[in-house]
Amino acid sequence: MKELLRSNDPVVISFVDALLNESGIVHSIADQHMSILDGSIGALPRRVLVAADDLAPAQRILREAGLAGELPSKT
Questions:
Q1: How far apart are CA 13 and CA 46, in angstroms?
Q2: What burial letters (b/e) apply to 3-31, b meaning 16+ CB within 10 Å?
Q3: Strand order across the beta sheet in which 2-7 lies
Q4: Which of 3, 10, 47, 55 sits in a 20 to 30 Å window from 74, CA-based?
């Protein structure tokens, strides 16, 4: 699995989840239950993971949905 994005914003995570579900891209949201450790303040980001073969199509979907700023920058 490859990390598609990482965010503290539950709205972004929910939107990405819906986009990927609609596109049929299998994904996983990691660290959802970490709020227990951070006191429910949202300090720990959630990660959206996809299969390596689905990374490029998933990134394209997010760019088309206006979420290019949420994608990790290439270094």
A1: 8
A2: ebbbbeeeebbebbeebbeeeebebeeee
A3: 2-7, 46-50, 27-30
A4: 10
The owner of tokens 């914003």 is 9
First to last CA, the chain: 20
What number does CATH give the domain 2-69? 3.30.70.790
Q: List, for residues 22-36, the tens digit of each pLDDT value.
A: 999 999 999 877 655
CA angle 70, 44, 9 (to 5 degrees): 40
Cα distances (angstroms) measured from residue 53 to each of 3, 33, 34, 65: 12, 27, 27, 20
